[in-house]
Design goal:
- The protein is mostly helical.
- The chain has a single domain, classed as ABC transporter involved in vitamin B12 uptake, BtuC (Orthogonal Bundle).
- The protein has a two-stranded antiparallel ribbon.
- The model has no long low-confidence stretch (mean pLDDT 87).
Length: 286
Amino acid sequence: MEQIVFNGLVLSATYAVIALGITLIFSVMNILNFAHGQMFMVGGFICYYIYGQFHLPFALALVAATVGVGIIGVIFEVFFFRRVRKTATREENSMLLAVGTALLLENIALFAFGEKQRGVPDVLDGVLRIGDAFVPEDRLLVLGLSAALIAALLLFVQYTRTGRAMRALAQDREATLLMGVDVERISAIGFGIGAGLAGLAGALLVTLSGVNAGIGIAITTKAFIMIMIGGAGVVAGSLLGAVVLGFAEAIGYAVLPGSVTYLVIFLGLVVFLIVRPQGIMGKPWG
């Protein structure tokens, strides 16, 4: 049982970083970022080359993945989504653009890196014994870094001027514009931070499970599961969805064959959405 709890905590913490990123983008811009998983994948490859191939410090790889993917997010917002948002007459256009950016990143990765699975050396190679659980030190590091990042992001959104502007923009775009806030700048920052979180999560998880060019679809699917469970656009809901998915996955892999775990999770999700389609903490549409 202790092993399941520890595995669930590690998965929940790293999934929370992913969920917070996609929730931040959705809240600020009302766009479901279908390329979130591909941004995760890019972050994983950045860490693979900086830490795994060039043998530079792991901390540098984390910073490079965060900043590099964050810049990609800002570029996407400024040159793609902003233009579509100004000229499009239907919200579906932004959704189709998001799908297009996902395909763009995935095909560039396939061309540049191929289909081979890549991994990096262990950051820490020790194993601790806590009760009946064996706790690898590298997983403990990922858990600690993820928890610290989540706390820092929540404090940033709650107490900084930019964070308050993001919250205002998420609540009412027109009112925020009338209050003199540079909405375009805040949108770019929000998209950049959300993308950077995906890149950082990819850099963290590459140390545990590796990375390949096709992993983005699976990560995006997991991100959508989390926000559907917790409620779209609700930060606390995304954290709750990450905990639910993380522990469901940990328990499932411990008691069920690997191929059955996500079948059960998807069936449970369908039943849950029939009962509460807005998620646990979301509000009914309309």
